[in-house]
Design a protein that fits this description.
Radius of gyration: 20 Å
Shape: globular
Number of domains: 2
CATH superfamily of the largest domain: Endonuclease Chain A
Number of helices: 9
CATH architecture of the largest domain: 2-Layer Sandwich
Largest sheet: 7 strands, mixed
CATH class of the largest domain: Alpha Beta
Strand order of the largest sheet: 1-7-6-5-2-3-4
Number of strands: 7
Structural class: alpha/beta
Strand content: 5-15%
Length: 267
């Protein structure tokens, strides 16, 4: 999962971030728990990725709403590195960023498992926030399109011109119908009460209902690519060279080159 903005305490969940009884969510009680982010990451970033992987193994249906970050399961290694770098700066934890990136990328193998299903809903803002270098974000956008083509992955994007029914206050993950995970800057909430799961399931359905899918979602991504890509290449070449591995941008570059040559030959 990826950190989201501050969220209000949920009824029925007592938050005591300084209490020694705060434990990681994998050891939570049936009523839920709150785990201090600094306690959670005090030994580094990699151990927490391993904890998430343990929970991944038990989950069959993943539903995630993210208004700020690309979800961890969809991140490129370069984008993940930028996110982990922020965590190291903010929480002042040991720098095991290489191990953490490898662990996050390895978790993505389950996207190809037919016994698991994934439904991601992102806001257009997640595609536009400058949380990494432009060339890294271009590669990330291309990866989104690739993952969206998987048969067990559904990707919805809520465009800027969409009227929300519920405000995108913060991100959250629904794991089957058992857990809701919410991350703030200071704590990770693991909500397990039935009324909380029902509440967040309803909110997710509202977000999914106004999101764009398929061609409409790809059109939003393409607009962001057009706005993010440099208008003129710095190396003086006719067309900018996309980051390695960005197939969509490579195809677009070749298409534009052919069109340009066709115009020249017709003159």
């Amino acid at each position: 999962m990826s950190a989201a903005g501050p969220a209000s305490p949920t009824p029925g969940l007592r938050l005591n971030r300084c209490s020694p009884r705060c434990t990681p969510w994998r050891s939570s009680t049936p009523n839920g728990s709150a785990s201090s982010r600094q306690r959670q990451l005090k030994t580094g970033l990699r151990p927490h990725q391993d904890e998430i992987a343990d929970l991944d193994a038990k989950t069959r249906l993943f539903r995630a709403f993210e208004p700020t970050f690309i979800p961890g399961l969809l991140q490129t290694a370069e984008y993940a590195r930028a996110r982990f770098a922020q965590s190291i700066t903010v929480f002042k934890v040991p720098n095991d960023i290489d191990e953490a990136v490898r662990a996050r990328v390895r978790r993505q193998e389950m996207l190809y498992r037919p016994d698991k299903r994934f439904h991601f809903v992102l806001t257009e803002a997640t595609l536009r926030y400058r949380l990494c270098a432009p060339e890294v974000m271009l590669g990330q956008l291309d990866r989104l399109i690739s993952f969206a083509a998987l048969p067990n992955v559904r990707l919805g994007i809520v465009g800027f011109d969409t009227a929300y029914v519920v405000a995108p206050a913060h991100g959250f993950w629904l794991l089957d119908d058992d857990r809701v995970l919410v991350e703030t800057f200071s704590a990770e909430l693991n909500l397990a009460q039935p009324q909380e799961i029902e509440l967040y399931s309803g909110i997710f359905d509202q977000m999914a209902a106004v999101a764009s899918y398929g061609r409409a979602a790809r059109a939003i991504v393409t607009r962001v690519v057009d706005d993010l890509a440099p208008e003129e290449p710095e190396d003086g070449s006719l067309f900018p060279v996309p980051p390695r591995g960005t197939l969509f941008l490579e195809i677009l570059r070749n298409f534009l080159a052919i069109r340009y040559l066709s115009v020249l030959l017709s003159q």
